[in-house]
């Protein structure tokens, strides 16, 4: 019972209209309604405070001949000064962007101030009416009536504030007129009661109508500013919040932070378990993130798996770090989706305004740079923006911009590293390796530009170029020579990849078996859901498929059993150590034996010494690849490597 009473009182003095039988709302909507109510009060406040100051001066003049002149002057000076100060404060507040959320505490202060001002005017009839002249009494009556009307107007949307302001004036008038006993004054008291009742009723009617109008407006805006899946604010709402925070920063110096989050496993969940599971994952993530913030702050979903938060009124950077740590901790427990337990993680980049930017572009650019550095460290990492981030980000964006035109400027090229057949000591094919010859940076490693290509979608255009160029090149070689092309995860799951391969083979007029597609175990680990049908389609087409870096993943044998590979490539880490570490030698021998039973050819990567070559020949490895055979060569160097007599003399058993 006590808890219910306390809750009711809290709602009552927070301006919650449900305390008076009005529409019930949750705290988020109530905070928005309070913001609109406060905006209305501030809109009237300058004029109301000016009227208060003028009325106080008029009262002092009217009581100039009264015995209470000194007390009236002191009262008038106090009220006028307070009214002018509050009016100036309200004028300054109106220049700041209207907040989207106002707390209960702020509304409590408003109600308290209304009561103090109403009490100041309620003192007037009690203290000054009896000793005033007839004219003075008329002025007091008019002023009190005017203040009742003015208070009802100023607080027309907040019944509790209107009551807090007018009640002391009613009480003062009642005390004054009641102790006089004159019939005329009793009639005036009756009229004041009727007049006040009409005003208060009008306040309630207006406030209920106002609240419902704001609620309808909020509901309508949700369709534009709310993400339909997670019910979080979307990018439009986030941009508005950021703009408002920057305006408050410029006008009042209120600092803030922006936290940018990226989910580390969303694409994997989406691709492995399907889009419905991905949607449920996002919904559960949104729920957890929502619980990490204060009522006045809302995490927004600004992209597929990107979330952001504007943390207003930042007292110290540690506060932003604390919220970021809560976000990271929210992923500690696995997510339960469609009967499965799925782990998740997030990385967080933080910027502090004005230190890290004073425009939306600078703030978000630097937040993205901080997030990029956090993601490079690993899942669950938090990073504040640093000046070095900006340099890295600019360099990366410049690289991305240059990469967009690399094909048109003919800056991409292929080099080729051969496969050597150990039984016949002849080259059976080449792996096509992509290189980027930048006009200013020189040779850019694939490890730098391929991740950028995958993130931006350029990988599809680049991948198509590689396939077409490789097919066109192998067409100039002997018919028994194949070319192998590496495919990334994003490229492999492009819906049009089969058509691209078919067209490339047709344009080059080569047999499908001369093209080999290499995919890695790590790619299969995150994209397994749609791998099998694509691989089967490739085999039906006649293209061969190789599993690269075999042994470095977690489910190699599962893939060999379920997916139709033509060839596997043993990772070079096993080849490098097989002559010095017995366990590596045992793994290599076992893989070759297993592949033979499954009728899958084997290529050993990273062969660099003659001893490694001899050992692999002894255990019946099919093909080898590595610097011992040849480093990657240009197209012009391929024909020299195809000199069979020279190869037989060099690598014969």
Beta content: 5-15%
Report the major sheet. 8 strands, mixed, barrel
Helix content: 55-70%
Count of helical stretches: 25
The CATH class designation of the largest domain is: Alpha Beta
What would you say this structure looks like, in words?
It is a single chain. The chain is of the alpha/beta class. Helices cover 60% and strands 13% of the residues. The protein has three domains: 2-224, no CATH class; 235-385, Alpha-Beta Plaits (2-Layer Sandwich); 399-651, TIM Barrel (Alpha-Beta Barrel), CATH 3.20.20.450. The strands form three sheets. An eight-stranded mixed β-barrel has the order 8-9-11-12-13-14-15-16, surrounded by six helices. A five-stranded mixed beta sheet has the order 2-3-1-6-7, with helices on both faces. A two-stranded antiparallel ribbon has the order 4-5. The longest helix has 43 residues, at 183-225.
Provide a brief overview of the structure.
This protein is of the alpha/beta class and about 650 residues long.
List the SSEs and their pairings.
Elements: H1 2-13, H2 27-62, H3 69-95, H4 104-128, H5 134-154, H6 159-180, H7 183-225, H8 235-252, E1 256-263, H9 266-273, H10 275-290, E2 300-301, E3 306-311, H11 317-329, E4 335-337, E5 340-342, E6 346-353, H12 360-377, E7 382-384, H13 387-404, E8 412-421, E9 426-438, E10 442-444, H14 446-456, H15 458-474, E11 482-486, H16 489-492, H17 497-508, E12 515-520, H18 521-527, H19 531-541, E13 544-550, H20 556-562, E14 567-570, H21 572-577, H22 582-597, E15 601-604, H23 610-618, E16 623-624, H24 635-641, H25 644-651
Parallel strand pairs: 6-7, 9-11, 11-12, 12-13, 13-14, 14-15, 15-16
Antiparallel strand pairs: 1-3, 1-6, 2-3, 4-5, 8-9, 8-16, 9-10
Helix pairs in contact: 2-3, 2-5, 2-7, 4-5, 4-6, 5-6, 5-7, 6-7, 9-10, 12-13, 13-14, 14-15, 15-17
